[in-house]
Amino acid sequence: MPMKSRILCALAGASCLATFPALAQSAAPAPSDAPAAPEAAVQNEIVVTATRRSESLRHVPMSVNVTTGDQLQKLNLFDAKDIQQVTPGLELTNTSGRNNTTSLRGISFDPDQGTGPAVQVYLNEIPTDAQTVYTALYDVAQIEVLRGPQGTLRGLSSPAGAITIRTRRPDFDAVSGSVQATATSRAGYNVQGGISLPFSETFAIRAAALVDGNRLNQVYNVSRKERSRSRTESARLTLGWKPNADLTAYLTYQYLESDSSQYGQVVGAGNAPAALFGDPTRSGPAATVGDYLSVTEGPARFQNHTHIINLAADWNLGPATLSFVGAHQFSKLQFDRDQDVANAVPGYNNLQNGSVPYKVDTAELRLSSNNAGIWNWGLGAFYSKQTGTTVSAQRSDSFFAPAPIAMGLYLPINSVATVPVNSETLSFNATSRLSLGQFRLEGGLRYSILRKIQTATIDVTSPGFAGFAPFGIPAIPSFTLQQPGIPAALQKTVDRPLTGGASLSWEPTDTLTLYVAYAHSFRSGSAAVAVPLGISNDLILTHPEKTDSVEVGVKAAVLDHRLNLSLAGYYQKYDGFLSRFDGISYNCRDFFGSCNNAGPPINNATDNPAVNGAFPFNYNGNATVKGIEGTIDGRPTRFWDFSLSASYTHGRYDNALLPCNDYNGDGVPDGNGAPRITGSGNVSYCRSNGRLAEIPDFSLSANSELRFPVGELTPFVRGLVNYRPGFFAERSSYDFESRTLLNAYIGIRGKDKRWELTVFAKNLLNQQRITNISLGNAIQSTSFGPYDSGYRTINAMNPREFGLSLSFNW
Are 323 and 313 in contact (CB under 8 A)? Predict the structure, then answer.
């Protein structure tokens, strides 16, 4: 390709790019400024551990996306959520600053629903909570996104996939390391590095550290006169020990401290919520997406303190290898936030604060054959136990009218929820792999015993209310109540699922693999904590979810291994898909405007108030997911790498009856107008064939690097494109616009890649598109109409940001 064409191709981005992980490279690629080599030697082999063994991605009967640590540094991806930019169909979001949501193959998950995640995250082969893992990325060796149900090879079952993150280990042969410093035009900074120190042929250590600061969602709070902000500090120490050729062990300790203030963004004209009483006080100014404004009057602070100890050991016994992986994690997540994100009640802070401990001990023991012949096998046992007590204190005031807060027309109520966590997983698995010429049959089963005890105590106190005769509100004496957060009959669950799968592969040549795979996954249901009393059991306890999937795929290497291609199609059926529905208006037997088990039957036509409030409810619904994924990546020449990956997923409910807000009674979700309940239940229900997650069916990611060696220096240009088309979301009743994220990089690196200087622009097109939005305006219900904030709460693409990055390797 002529030099001019190469330059145009690199600058054009997606028009000349083609698919797979990000700038995928071989395990030991030739440096871009190495001496010229025959074109036939330019290859691109990707090695993964998706099947718990190191093997070429081309031979793995599973759809997998790979991002190496080098690519994270080159593309300045410092947050785990950024890997969605190089992985189509993957959505990683944090809508509130507190909970991280992972979506894959059209399936979403809210950590507040209390079930296992739809996509399980593993750090060095140990399941870890996303809130900790997604905080920062540094000194990473490789990230693999495994698509489709998981329930055989790793300890926990998950229906949509798994993300495995493997950190770098010590080098026993030589001192090596790297350091990278980055600064951006929007007050962002990131300094990270790692170094390996071999003390002998049998003992080495690796130390790594990170300091990171940024403005998160780039939102400015006009009420508090401050911006969203985050600072993360973390350090990791890994000890490596190889006393002989048969035994290897690694002991890792990681400490992390994160402190962030993420204010919720709003759009809308704003409002004077108490104007009915002549109060002109507004919830805030008019706000568009590009204003990046918040109007919250209270705080939004989230802190994470984490300690993780991990031990991994392999002992070669000759015929088989005995492997152990174990970890202890203690995280304390503290939060302090104003739940009135859109300032629906000006002058009022609906405060919530508390702490969430995450104490988890995990151990796995595996015995795997070392046979290089026809048959290989594996046996394993896995154990995990989580404990800790969550404490959350919040205001649960009951408003009598949309009046100025100074009038005091509300019953002050303070509640404290104490929620002990006690869950335990014990599982046993067996795998088998039979190779007969060009065919390979492999599969396995996992039997699990899942025990969960969910209890909660809700302490409610109030100083009472003096009464207000003009509204017919009688005096209410002070009171103190203690009530169970979960009914006794729903507190204990035990599930004994059998999960697993099988695959058949055909490799007619060393460069071509065709496969068909089946997988079965399971997730336990969960009892919701602190739901309003008087709510029916179907809104408290969800049933287990089961899913079956079939995948057919082909993988190939062409042009003398310069290009890797992959194509997979799949069909997945969900029996009782678990999901969470936020902000659902409810009505129940009344007690001072709240709910109680005593009282007259519900009458949604005459109850006053017609709506007692809003609550997030978990619910089951049958669903079907089907789609196709295609990738191509490679290094056509030693001067050019490229990668293109595309995904189409059609994930929909199957005529499921689900909780909804249906204020006009037409059976379709809506959120504007006077809140009310349709039907005879505590909430409205709508029939749905809609999306399982508010993400588009199609997505595409592409990136490329083009190099221009000049002596000992190598100038380069690099580009990353991520595209999501527009779509209509039924749950939020909103037409999302298409999104094209374009990141551009230009720089120069030194001889043998010893150093690199890069200037970059993220979101070069400066698109400011909504990525998540609430259903209707944020409101606060009262007996005489709602406080209407005039705003919808949203998340949006971050605006354009320029940066400079400098790295050194040795």
Answer: yes
Fold of 3-35+43-453+474-581+626-652+690-809: Maltoporin; Chain A (2.40.170)
User: Which ranges constitute the DSSP H helices of 651-729?
Assistant: none
In the prediction, which pLDDT does 490 show? 85
Gap between the Cα atoms of 707 and 684, Å rounded: 59
Contact 507, 440 (CB under 8 A): yes
Mean pLDDT of all residues in the chain? 88
Hey, how many other C-beta atoms are within 10 angstroms of the C-beta on 189? 15
- Asked whether 187 and 213 are in contact (CB, 8 A), the reply is yes
Q: What burial letters (b/e) apply to 429-460, b meaning 16+ CB within 10 Å?
A: bebebebeeeebebbbbbebebbbebbbebeb
Q: Which residues contact 407 (CB under 8 A, 6 or more apart)?
A: 277
pLDDT(383) > 70: yes
Asked if 226 and 261 count as a contact pair (C-beta separation under 8 A), the reply is yes
CA distance 45 to 163: 21
Give strand pairing partners of 59.
none
Burial track 310-345 (b if 16+ CB lie within 10 A, e otherwise): bbbebeeeeebbebebbbbbebebebbbbbbbbbbb
Q: Give yes or no for a contact between 801 and 186, defined as CB atoms under 8 angstroms apart.
A: yes
Q: What 3-state class would DSSP assign to 162? A: strand
Encoded amino acid at 78, one letter = F
List the chain domain ranges.
3-35+43-453+474-581+626-652+690-809
Does 62 have pLDDT greater than 50?
A: yes
Q: From CA 743, how far away is CA 797, in angstroms rounded? A: 13
Residue 128: φ, ψ to 5°: -140, 150
Distance, in Å, from the CA atom of 164 to the CA atom of 788, rounded to the nearest integer, reads 44
Residue 612 has pLDDT above 70, yes or no: yes
Model confidence band, residue 677 (pLDDT cutoffs 50, 70, 90) = confident
